[in-house]
Specification:
5 strands; alpha/beta
Length: about 170
């Protein structure tokens, strides 16, 4: 089974006009960013207009020198299958990350960088949080070219007026 990549949007439902969704990505763990990316991809595949706002650690997902180095964090994750006594041991994050990447490859799920590119190509709007950029001392040039703009949270809400807002 192959991962369903974003394709040209399907016709939208006729109940109240086209659907629109805004997703907020605030986490940069490999296991934490995929729900946002997959939901955004599914939205575009079904013809739903979609915008994603990357803030705080979610900036790592769209930062050029970090995107290929995201990892799974077992420590502090209450849903982790790893017992707490083992989660903090050296090498556990690397092991978990390696396992997750292997499973994703087996399921033909693209990497984070590729997913971000697919989203942009499908018409998804991608924004970085201005405040988080300042907090983490990042510049627009540090981001993937797929990012449309660096904007404030207020700007994001204005741009996505009428969208369903989902904090993932």
């Amino acid at each position: 089974m192959s991962f369903p990549f974003a394709a040209p949007p399907a016709p939208t439902a006729t109940t109240g006009g086209p659907r629109k969704i805004a997703l907020i990505c605030s986490k940069g763990g490999l296991d934490e960013c995929y729900p946002v990316l997959i939901m955004a991809n599914a939205a575009r595949m079904t013809g739903i207009t979609c915008a994603v706002f990357f803030t705080f650690w979610g900036l790592d997902v769209i930062t050029e020198d970090r995107v290929d180095h995201l990892h799974v964090n077992f420590v502090g994750n209450p849903s982790s299958p790893m017992p707490y006594m083992l989660a903090g041991l050296p090498g556990m994050e690397a092991l978990g990350t390696s396992f997750m990447k292997k499973r994703m490859t087996e399921l033909d799920i693209p990497g984070v960088r590729e997913m971000v590119g697919m989203l942009k190509a499908s018409g998804c709007e991608l924004y970085a949080c201005e405040l988080a950029m300042k907090m983490f001392d990042r510049k627009k040039e540090d981001l993937l070219p797929d990012v449309e703009a660096v904007i404030t949270a207020t700007d994001f809400f204005e741009k996505t007026h009428g969208y369903d807002i989902v904090f993932v």
